[in-house]
Amino acid sequence: MTVKTPIYLDYAATCPVDQRVVDQMVPFFTQAYGNAASRTHAFGWTAEEAVERAREQVAQTIGAEPKELTFTSGATESNNLAIKGIAEYLHEQGDHVITVVTEHKAVLDTCKHLERQGKRVTYLPVDAQGLVTAQQVADAITDETVLVSVMFANNETGVIQPIAEIGKVCHDRKVLFHTDAVQAFGKVPIDVQAMNIDLLSMSAHKIYGPKGVGGLYVRRRKPRVRLAPQIHGGGHERGNRSGTLNVPAIVGFGAAAEIARQGMGEESVRIAALRNRLRDRLREEVQHVTLNGSEEHVLPGTLNMSFSYIEGESLLMALKDVALSSGSACTSASLEPSYVLRAMGLDDELAHSSLRMTIGRFTTQEEVDYVVELIGKHVTRLRDMSPLWEMVQEGIDLNSIQWTAH
Ligand SMILES: *Cc1c(COP(=O)(O)O)cnc(C)c1O
Fold it and tell me: In this structure, is the dihedral angle defined by the CA atoms of residues 335, 283, 297 and 321, taken in order, positive or negative?
């Protein structure tokens, strides 16, 4: 079997830009290079037209009106704009925000910032699958609540929250509802009307578009949502976000959204089949492997599994030919286990020995099969070296052992 390495299984982190997207972007660097805000000549008009077309393409993907879309530098900015923008604009109405412990840092750190400014934030816990319920949201809402922010799908586990139910609760209680939909956007159907979503964050580079561009949907009717801008300047984007528009990137975002929307049905089936193959074959090949998250409420391409009785770090090193991420956040100097998996009740050991494998548009079955065999081989090798594994094989219950402290 010949498979080209390294293999990319980290589509939740970012994606290659689709060649069809690049082709549509290129003319806007060197030929149609106008400033979309230039009203006095054809260069500006052409750029503006391209931006408005992209706005339609992105809006259509979530069932929104083009006017309801604000272009940003990415979902980190969209999350900041949504959360700070609403908290600031509605400060006289209340000072309470509700979110979830497993959110992306772009939401959690923004909420921490609000707390430092004296606002109150409720962080809802999740169950063992990583899910919250609409009832939890309903119970947390008070007269002071101005915003609920619950992610559509989790970036580590792919778990999809009951967004329509949460949207209904928020709508009934007249509290605004924001969702960080980065992982779900373009992968599963989203309808901001049916789901009662008031604000929604998206990013181009998670859907085969360029990095550094994203969007925030801001509802304009029933209710009309207003927010305090976080970047002031020339009043671009209806005053929501000033700054000269990155026209080539926005064109790429639109093209990527259009391709995602049109191909979603077919692509999600193909990708889910590959993910299921990876999951099922790993279960066959490797003993003591557990799925982290939900088998039912999950994105098509995400798989998160823990491999007991091995060190996550050793496994990652053995898999250096495969680009994937682990539950050990070894990006910094610290070796903190994933806070998302910890919140789902996993112990440090299982969180450390977890792998997130995300499948995407360009993943092949050969690559999946290669990775299964590679993981199988190395898990076996690492366990053969482990005294813990030897005890498990002998039928000793590790939990019954009184370890002596030194
Ligand atoms: C990637 C990601 C972000 C950040 O998006 P950027 O466009 O890279 O800033 C936010 N939330 C989730 C869930 C993500 O996966």
Answer: positive
- pTM for this predicted structure: 0.96
With a 6 A CB cut-off, is 199 part of the ligand 1 pocket?
no
Residue 86 has pLDDT above 70, yes or no: yes
pLDDT of 299 reads: 98
Q: How many CB atoms lie within 10 A of CB 130?
A: 27
Closest CA to 353 of 377, 382, 374, 373: 382
Using a 6 Å cutoff on CB, does residue 150 contact ligand 1? no
Q: Which atom of ligand 1 is found nearest the CA of 153?
A: 13
CA 382 to chain centre: 31
330 among known catalytic residues: yes
Q: Would you say residue 182 has pLDDT above 50?
A: yes
Among 185, 180, 194, residue whose Cα is nearest residue 147: 180
Structural domains of the chain in order of their starting residue, each with its CATH number: 7-13+264-393 (3.90.1150.10), 19-260 (3.40.640.10)
What gap in Å lies between CA 186 and CA 301, rounded to an integer?
12
Structure tokens at 50: 């391209």
